[in-house]
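[job 0412] stage=complex_fold ligand=cobalamin status=START
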Amino acid sequence: MAKTKIVFINPPYERIAPGYEFVKHITNRSPSLGLLHLAAEVRLHGYEPSIIESDIFDLSIDKVAKKVVAEKPDYVGITLFTVGVWSAATIARKIKQALPNTIIIVGGPHISSMGPETIARFQEFDIAVVGEGERILMELLHTLECKQDLSTVPGIIYRDGDNIRRTPGMAGDKVLDKLPMPAWDLLPDFPHAYKPAIYDFPRGPVATIAASRGCPFHCKFCDTSTFGAKVRHYSPEVVFKMMKHLQNTYGVRHIMFVDDLFLASKVRTTELCNLILEDGMNMTWTCTARVDTVKPDILKLMKKAGCWEISFGLETGSNELLKKMDKVACVEKSEQAVKWTADAGIRTKGLFMLGYPGENQETIQKTKDFVQRIPMTIMNLTKFTPYPGSPVYRDLYGTNIRDDHWEKMNGMNFVWAPEGLTVEELDRQYQKILVSFYRRPKIGLYYLKLTLQYPNHLFRLVRFALGYLNAKLRSFFGGRRGLLVKPHEAHLDV
Ligand code: B12
Ligand code: SF4
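[job 0412] stage=complex_fold status=DONE, emitting structure tokens
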């Protein structure tokens, strides 16, 4: 008997500002780990899943829809970040036109925070799954197959005539070990097509793992609605097993841990490091950490076990802004943590944002001073975006944010400006902060050395440089005097 088919889609979304398409050669191209987990779960229960990674293969909305229609699946599962909602809805509409009986299920961070609004707005989506998806999706599929009442399924949003109904959620297991291993084998051209941002790893191939889910902090800009405040985790043994599997089966040489709080437990981190060291596993890895979770002893052990880079959410150089963000951190602690990390021989990636409510010329100057003062090797600056699901979204909604900015919510557009600053000024300062960090001889020298040590990055850099040159020339010949953004595409009318 033919198996029931489910196509999972990571839809295309605007990841690069118009005019800057050449940037794709150096940006992060990681797959959706959520879909890999879901595909593994449904396969375990006898379904036949497949995965479409739109952006990684430059698939347009039309191409994705055509691919799905050709498959004639019984179900389609789409993962939704806020930025991808509109393109996902267009894909769903096209699928529904060709295959009216295919049931379209959505989930992911946007649904966990804006589920009812999204289902009400987009008739193309049939059912939404809120929060962690594995168990809920299985219960949902079982209920649909048996044509039972949807009100018995936990954690879903569905239509009942003209009404939108939401069922109560379910608590997840404290230990995640029972989940099947993510279905990396279903990813086309894995691991070679999936690369983190340039210089963000020493040598590929690379894969991602989420060793834990959830974060107990409540930073006001952060959307934690999918996994909530309770940290749940895999045992160190299972994380180690996943790393070993990736190394032995796919030749993976670098792991990116994407947990919100990889260092939530020093005990678990120590155990994982010891397992790696006992095995002699020759692998590098990166993770994220809060500045208050690192100390010299654990950093030294992590370095020995292959840790290559830690991403810290440093956010800003202003204590006043950190307080407004409820970050429960201070600039002095951040500085200490970055110094300890550098002393241990691990690179620091600093994650910053510009334009948070309360930002002004003084806080911007503090950030510029801060980034030059600390021994950080890579700086990631995002344009403050009030993502639905973050506490600050609720604070700002009703001022000058509009929900039809969803497709611009990718951290690369200012969809909101703090009092006293315009979007134009923020854009100017955005460039200046990055330039103040990167245009220093010691940073230039560092990247030169890194390129010589790991020449695999050179190829991407050359493609990026050629793309940039091409865009500049086209702009001059098109009468835009070198400006890369076409004027009508430059800003949102906030
Ligand atoms: C790794 C990561 C990335 C990677 C990979 C992205 C990807 N497609 O997965 C990269 C670097 C590419 C990335 C990019 C961006 N990211 Co990101 N990213 C993350 C991070 C740190 C981990 C994601 C992860 O792998 N989680 C583990 C897996 C298992 O969980 P999951 O994907 O959520 O899936 C589970 C459930 O959501 C649900 N589910 C998901 N999809 C579906 C679909 C169906 C049908 C069902 C039933 C269930 C379901 O079930 C899954 C299994 O339990 C999260 C933070 C977080 N804690 O999740 C931020 C996060 C998801 N990113 C975020 C953002 C904003 C972005 C960007 C838009 C901008 C930016 N600043 O980086 C871009 C572009 C987004 C895109 N469409 O890819 C926000 C999303 C907020 C929002 N409302 O949109 C988050 C929540 C960070 C935050 N706290 O604010 N990101
Ligand atoms: S920013 Fe980091 S520490 Fe703060 S709530 Fe989000 S995941 Fe947790």
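Confidence is low (pLDDT under 50) at residues 490-494.
[job 0412] exit 0
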